[in-house]
Every structure is written in structure tokens, then in C-alpha cells.
Amino acid sequence: MTAQMTSTAPGSSHSATEGQHGLVAHSDGAFVPVQTRSERFRSVNVEDFAPVHGREHEWKLSPVAAFADLTGGELDGSRLTLATEPVEGVELSWIPRSDERIGRAGIPEERASANAWSSFDEALLVRVTGDDEKVAVITRTGLGDAPRAAHTVIEIAPNSRGLVVLAGEGEARLSENVEIVVGEGASLTVVSLQEWGDDAVHLGSHFARIGRDAFLKHIVVSLGGKVVRVNPSTHLAEQGADIEALGLYFADAGQHLEQQVFVHHDAPHTRSRVTYKGALQGAGARSVWVGDVLIAQTAPGTDSYEQNRNLVLTDGTRADSVPNLEIETGDIEGAGHASATGRFDDEQLFYLMARGITEAEARRLVVRGFLTEIVQKIGSADLEARLLEALEAELEGR
């Protein structure tokens, strides 16, 4: 377990990274241990956060110079261009900043997220209803190279079911917040699919609140873009809430793909499974995965496990993998974490080559088998086929 720098008390206007001595005082004089993930400073106002320098705990593994305009500059908060098809049971609309449905799932913990929150004009509301299976694909495209801000709220009604894909294509310099609210007894899958152009930069903060006996499958797929940083934060707020957080990424030469995952067990008998898998090839390919799980005193009977696996395909790559687990109650069903980064399994390659398969084809089969575990859990045959084709293109360097 890795200790993290703590924050100032909620409501303070100071940065979460000013303290340098392991403990930071609350306004009432008490202290918060450095590992308490839930105590990070939060605000929807960008001015409440200090400028980003890259030394802060939330930014120290990120190439901050590549997106200084998104963390501190002015952002265009107008509506994004969307491509989507009508789906029965899925309603899309634009709502004003003042709408009471905004801010229910969570609020920013860092400056880029707060800058996007301070800048958007209207939020895209995606409302899912009905207990039949349905798939809605929403593609953001044509964003251009100017810095943009966006806000999306995905809300699923109690006892409803659905799958929502938020996809990104083409040029972009985007900082966005995505709120996900899962009603009682509902089952929702959200796929965040990054297939941006080669020079695109995308910073995304996802906040999810899961209700009583509800289930969320949250999947982050990052393939395209120069710098992609998607950080999902899930609050298991009511009894029986369940999250399966999955991630798939393929970093090529000079590409930075990052995910910082937080799961907060805050109610009895909640469950979480976190599995992120990635591959890296080419000089300067970089991936970052940070996984924080907090099991609060209010969450007896918790069942939690998180893991990250990285497959290194060439020299000159770097994979950072940091699992953190904090447990505040002894009354749990189970909790654990794992992390591994390695090269090809020579025995697997030998087995395949001994059966007449070329080395290049054997390597492709091994990588595909390693990554398709995540693809096969999406639950949409069309999307799974699309992603398998994209992975083949990555392996062939297309």
C-alpha cells in the first residue's frame, strides 16, 4: 500500500498539495492521516486550486506541460458536436448549469476537472429508462485543436437496464467531467472509448454514484490520442451497490495513457472488482495506472479486489502501476490487490511456434489473448467486434 499526500479540509480554498509534512490540519484542529483518500480537497471552482506544476501527488506521473492550457487556460464550454442514433429508452438533452441534477455523483479533486466544471455552458443529459436491453453510442467528433470543456450526466432510472458508449474521434484538446447516477436496482454499463487522433489530448474525470442493489460496469478503452488521462471515481453509496471497473489500453511510441481509479465503499455489503490491462510498444510509450480502494467504517461485509496487468512488447517503454488499499473496518468478506508488468511468456511463444506458427503471428496471438478478456466483458457484440479490429490495427502498427 502506498501512502498519498492528504488534503486540506473540505470547504477550504487552498490547494490539496500545499502540505509537505505528511499531516494537514482540519479547521477543527484534528489531523487526517496521509492515506485517507476520501479526504482530498474538492471544489467546482478552478480558482480554489493552485496552478499545476507536476510535483503534486495527482500530477506527478503526468506530462503536465503537454496540457497546461487545459489545467489553467480559458476553455470553450459550448456544446460539443455529437453523432448518435435514436434509441428507445435513451433520451438526450442539454440542461443548464443550474440544473439540480448536476453535482450529485461527485465534484472535482484536481484543477483540470475544476477548470472544465467552471467553464461548461450546458451539460449533456443522457437519461436511460426501461428494463429492456438497449445500447446507445454517442460520438464526440470535430472538436478541433482549441481547448474545450464538457460536462455529461448519465442517469439511469431505478430497475432499468442499458449500455451507453461515450466515444471520441479526431482532433481534440478536451477536459471533461462525466457524472453517472445509477438508481436503485438498476444495471448500467458505461464505456468510455478513446479513439482520438494522433495529436489529441483528453483529460476526463468520471464520477459515479451507485444506489441500493444497483450495478455499474464501467469500462475505459484508450487506444488513440497523444495524451489520454481518464480517472473514474466510484461511490458505493448504498447497501448492495456493485461496481465492475474495467480498463483496456494500448500505448504506442510517444503516447501517454493514464488512469487513476478510486472506489469508495461507503455502505454495507458492497462489492467491487477492478481489472485494468494494457500493452505497450515503441520508444516512449507510457502507461500510468493508480488504483485506490477505500473501505470505510460504514461498509461492513465489503468484498473488493483490484488488479492491473501490463504487457511490455518492446524496449523503451514505461508502465507505472500503483495499487492502494485502505481498510477502516475489520468486518469484511475480502479485500486485495495485485499488479504485474512483464514481457512475453517465452513458454507460450515456444508452444505456438512448435506447432508451425511464425514468431510474429505467435506474438500477435498472445497479445490478443491477453487483452480480449476485457473486450469480451463489454456486452455488445458490435462494439466488441469493433474493438478487436482496432486492436489488430494496433498490433500491426496501422
UniProtKB/TrEMBL annotation:
It holds the Pfam family SUFBD_core. Coiled coil: none annotated. Residues 149-370 form the SUF system FeS cluster assembly SufBD core domain. InterPro entries: Fe-S_cluster_assembly_SufBD, SUF_FeS_clus_asmbl_SufBD_core, SUF_FeS_clus_asmbl_SufBD_sf, SUF_FeS_clus_asmbl_SufD. NCBIfam families: sufD. Belongs to the iron-sulfur cluster assembly SufBD family. This is Fe-S cluster assembly protein SufD.
